[in-house]
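Quick check before the chapter quiz. The format below is the same one you will see on the exam, so make sure you can read both the input and the output lines.
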Amino acid sequence: MKSKIRLISITGSLALAASALIASEATYFVKLERENLRSTPNGDRIGQLLQKAEVKVIEEKGDWCKVTVTAWIPKASLTTDPSTIQAAHRDEKPAGSGFFFSNVSISTGMLGTQCLGEMTNNSGRDYTLANFIVSVYDENDKLIETAYVIIGNFAKGAKKSFETLLINSQASQIASYKIQFENGL
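Here is the expected output.
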């Protein structure tokens, strides 16, 4: 008699677990304009979902739901080796539209103040010409000057050196800078 009770108890537990699993895989939609995706409840932000994004709840923990999202991204944006991601973007800063700059130096010499660096094209497209604006600021965040950087024949995935002259600035006056993609062909 004991073995039948255990069998019924185990079968009942499996049925409850299966129904909970099926219920937890229901489709939901994000209500807010934007909602953060987190690695754990109250953990680091790892992404964001927009309003009406479809998710499936696969686990619940208190006031939190673990969700899955089905979506598409370009294959070129993926890697099986996460160490390559860190190496590719560790010292790079975004310039907008998929461009990243790194190794920037600003120094004053005989010809004026020179801004040198490297730009990476992760925009997903080739550019015959890509135009960037370099803006330099003083210690009070007041704009001192802007200059243009034009990079020719900039293939997707390529990294190229750039340089521009800042005519009205001395390196000692410059506290910060921004580099932004403006447009391209």
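If your answer matched, good. Residues 95 and 180 are 4 Å apart (CA to CA).
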